[in-house]
Amino acid sequence: MLIAGNWKMNLTLEESLNLVKAVRSAGVKNEAIKVGMAVPFPYLVPCSELLEESENISIGAQNIHAESNGAFTGETSADMLLSCRIEWTIIGHSERRYLFHESNEVVKAKVERAVASNLGIILCVGEPKEVRNRGEEEDFVSNQLMESLPAELPDSYWSKIVLAYEPVWAIGTGLTASPKQAQTMHAFIRRQMESTFGSRAKGISILYGGSMKPGNASELLDQQDIDGGLIGGASLKAESFIEIIRQAEQIEKI
Length: 254
Ligand code: PEP
Hints:
It is a single chain. This protein has 254 residues and is α/β, with parallel strands linked by helices. Helices cover 39% and strands 15% of the residues. It is built from ten helices and eight strands. It has helices at residues 13-26, 44-49, 78-83, 94-99, 104-117, 129-133, 137-148, 179-197, 217-221, 238-249, and strands at 2-6, 34-38, 57-60, 88-91, 120-125, 161-165, 205-209, 228-231. The chain has an eight-stranded parallel sheet. α8 (179-197) links the parallel β6 (161-165) and β7. The chain is globular, with a radius of gyration of 17 Å. The termini are close together. The site of phosphoenolpyruvate (PEP) has 13 residues, from β8.
């Protein structure tokens, strides 16, 4: 199980270091749980330096460029992250897809770059409200997945890829998919991955994201096919993020 925070474009350096220190001192009390925090680029190195001794807590990025280097002002590559000992990034978050117009094609190019560099990823998918209202969410997510992933992944990469189902209507809105809605989609994604990539894909971790907070984390994390959470707003405060980690530690299926 993975409990990952996505800080987006929030916090000062001082607030960031304090948050990482608080999570580090709270610790992870169950070996089956990994904790991650996807932080803004300037904070990657100072935050990860605080976690050099922590086996279960890591710092990741929120985005990469699809090229490995070149004239791309303002961008950051997978190899740059790895050279700073940052080993994973989020790719395809809905804010990147909608606010920065990243198509499935762009997302796929980023995934391919991460695979080529051996950088771990959390690949996000999820449908907007109008698609769910039409009852077409499974087709939409299936299409996003198939168009965002390369046709084949090296055997050695399967341990580095995590998926996140994040219904767009639930991100930052306070609305959450019900445990049943989330479980249904997660089971669908797992079946889809297995039928496309075979048995290696069966054990892939699929996180739920969309207004997860202490008040709803347990019942979401308890669902059979939900293997953790990608948490925005509630990851910005030590108290709520640590409370979600504590709840994850109690989940019986892990
Ligand atoms: C996210 O940004 O990935 C997210 C799930 O945000 P929030 O928890 O604030 O809905």
